[in-house]
Amino acid sequence: MSSYLRGGVGLLALIAVLAVAGPAFASRSPVLGRVYVNDNTAGSNTISGYDRLADGTLSPIPGSPFFAGGAGTGTSIASQGAIQVSSDGRYVLAVDAGSNQISVLRIRHDGALRLVRDGVADSQGSDPVSIAEHDRLVYVANAGTGGSNYTGFVLTRAGHLLPLPGSTLALPDAAQPGDVLFNSTGTNLVGTRVGTS
Fold this sequence. Notes:
The protein is mainly β. The chain has a single domain (about 30-195), classed as Methylamine Dehydrogenase, Chain H (7 Propeller). It is built from 1 helix and 15 strands, in the order αβββββββββββββββ.
């Protein structure tokens, strides 16, 4: 009888350990994709990266957050387009509102980001808030006073942004661009402005 109790107590202890530590022993849910967030960090801007798991949770990518290359403002950006993944899935493009720049980061096989060498470009305006990309054609919305515009770039295969001559569309100072995006075929560029009807 006493050996039965000792065995039973041992089994109960093992079950208790597995119940408490079960998630540590369980295999990680498969990665279905990745999520990147422009932190707009004051001073040195950062991009946070997460694996999107099959069970619906997000798990930080090792090394996250990643240095973006420019500066953020430390406040929220009034745009849903402050960061984009390129059409070919090779790069993350992010606005750096605090330094009036755009950063290009290479997406590594494990989802980690690395700033492209010479991968920070002048946004050709002030306070960039949104960026759009379609087949290496890139547009940025600059919302700053005295420099409010939509401006185009070409994204090279090496991850550099080259200004597109004649592409800048100046906006009145009162017109605050919110988002800029392409339609699904890349034939139209759509821009929104804050406070207009």
